[in-house]
Design goal:
mainly alpha; 50% helix; single chain; two-stranded parallel ribbon
Length: 195
């Protein structure tokens, strides 16, 4: 089956849907092949994450409205980490995202154990803030412009230093850690996008 998608996925809902489907299928195939390693996650890490979610969020206490935090985060990412970015805005955005994450929004007003959309929404905010941090730190580390990622302070593409995929991980310290993976060039060689 042949699939075509828009190259600038940052602006295309159809691309997100198509690649989301492809990625989900490939992730499921990968997990199926590696299921014998499924128990390799340390039990204390699982307990720590359960404690963070249920004690820290579901039963959490806070005076800040989580939905206000979500709105502020969305506006912040639009201003400080949009397609056109620069180091100063990214640094300011990162500082603010980290402040928002530490603010007292981690609480759920609805204590229902089933069909609790309030809990789901607050967990989504938790994920948004963590992903926002990854996006900003990743953009700071990539000092070039490529595709839908444009650094006004680094307007040129840099294949020598950045023809590689950025990989992000959260480790024990709850800080994003980054590594790189080489790009496999196939039939089409990269070329600079001109507007």
């Amino acid at each position: 089956m042949r699939q075509h998608v828009n190259r600038l996925g940052a602006n295309s809902t159809s691309e997100c849907l198509l690649w989301g489907s492809i990625t989900g299928r490939l992730a499921a195939e990968y997990a199926e092949k590696k299921k014998d390693r499924a128990n390799s996650v340390a039990h204390n890490k699982i307990q720590s994450e359960e404690k963070r979610i249920f004690d820290g969020i579901f039963r959490g206490r806070g005076q800040v409205n989580p939905y206000d935090v979500r709105k502020e985060f969305t506006e912040l990412m639009d201003v400080k980490a949009s397609i056109f970015r620069n180091e100063n805005d990214l640094i300011e955005g990162l500082k603010k995202v980290r402040e928002l994450y530490k603010s007292l929004w981690k609480h759920v007003d609805d204590r229902a154990k089933e069909y609790n959309t309030n809990f789901i929404n607050v967990m989504e905010i938790d994920s948004l803030l963590r992903i926002g941090e990854i996006i900003i730190v990743g953009a700071l580390n990539r000092r070039e412009s490529r595709g839908a990622h444009y650094r006004t302070d680094y307007p040129n593409r840099d294949d020598v230093n950045f023809l590689k995929h950025t990989l992000a991980y959260f480790k024990c310290d709850n800080e994003p850690h980054f590594s790189w993976h080489p790009v496999t060039l196939t039939r089409y060689l990269p070329f600079e996008r001109k507007y």
